[in-house]
Target: P-type Cu(+) transporter
Amino acid sequence: SKTISKCYVQVTGMTCASCVANIERNLRREDGIHSILVALMAGKAEVRYNPAVIHPAAIAELIRELGFGATVMEDCGEGDGILELVVRGMTCASCVHKIESTLMKTNGVLYCSVALATNKAHIKYDPEAIGPRDVIQVIKDLGFTTSLVKKDRSASHLDHKQEIRQWKRSFVVSLVFCIPVMGLMIYMMVMDSQLSEAHAHHNMSSEEMEALHSSMVLEYQLLPGLSVMNFLSFLLCVPVQVFGGWHFYIQASRALRHNTANMDVLVVLATSIAFLYSFVILLVAMAEKAKVNPVTFFDTPPMLFVFISLGRWLEHVAKGKTSEALARLISLQATEATIVTLGPDNVLLSEEQVDVELVQRGDIVKVVPGGKFPVDGRVIEGHSMVDESLITGEAMPVTKKPGNTVIAGSINQNGSLLISATHVGADTTLSQIVKLVEEAQTSKAPIQQFADKLSGYFVPFIVAVSVVTLFAWIIIGFVDFEIVEKYFLGYNKSISAAEVIIRFAFQASITVLCIACPCSLGLA
Model:
């Protein structure tokens, strides 16, 4: 339909399929949006919308409100050229009107918008009728200075460096505190197994067991109800909960603010419940001056954060590698071109170094040995060998002589060439290949769309299953304690049966929260 437009939005901060489902579900509800496809690996959203109702900047803002980074990617529509300029020398609204009205009267200019506050001009033009340098000259003739808005050609959004650094830091912080926690845990498990053996062989009473248990170094009470073990575990758990889990808490709060739940919500629920439960139990034991130390879960958050942040770190490394080929393709694009003016018999009159975006169809471009071809063109003078391997796969250099075509991004080897530009900007072969690869990354198989949709409902379902698990094991434990005793490894006879049941039920419910990962659906 003529009323439907398409735009691409670069999205950062997505971690798994539930993030994809979150964005797609929320944006489909908005007026004016007909369809949206979000690609996790490419970090990109393709949106079809009604320009009369909504515009790309508003779409990007909607994605940002969901807690993700979003910037509109410039897409040259059906053969149109787009020019972003910085215009200096404007003083008031009449200057803006003068530029806009003059450009709109110029043959080939399809659309023009000038913002006084930002000193920027957005111009859409027909490359068949006018070129970017012609547009700049029109503005200069009106008495204003103008230059191109510098674009990021580094493809930095594809290498995931920022995310890799962020999750690596989170993993290292969690690991530093997790190793001592694991040491304490292993020590306690060894001591508990020795106590169980002592109980089995000497048939001790529960009072004797309690006395032997409290004689252990880590079970020594600093204050009534506060053992060395619990105090050290608490001190090691707090930094991980705050610093190691910082990113999880931010993402989870953003998700909950928009009535959605993702993997981060599961992780935050599991670690926060374990931490708060342990902290409250500790306070109650200290208030009651308990002789037997309570069983806490301070070891759960550090261990969980270590494995999840390690997974996230490795995941972003893998994503960066997946997009490596596309990043290499983008890096092939030349940034500058040497435009020459020829006299009779192809005599060189002058040459000028310009930004590659300013090359127009029909321009004569000079390419020296070792230089990249900035645009597609036809050789008009010179003989050379050209390396086209990165674009065509041709291993051997290809001979070029007058009349032959050259491809943007290929490398000139041993002779200077003069070429006439035939395809520029988004129309070059290299730009089209990049566009096709990006579109291939954005498209989804039906099974992938189903998995993304499913992961949107996955988290609430898992939370419900976790709650059911908690109450089911509490009921089973009080009805038949032997079942809990059978499955609860390292059961300590000095702890009351009720506490053992609660501890086991709690462990089972937290395990359900921790192991259920919607990310695995999307990755599979």
The chain has four domains: 5-73, 81-154, 161-322+445-523, 334-432. The radius of gyration is 33 Å. The mean pLDDT is 81.
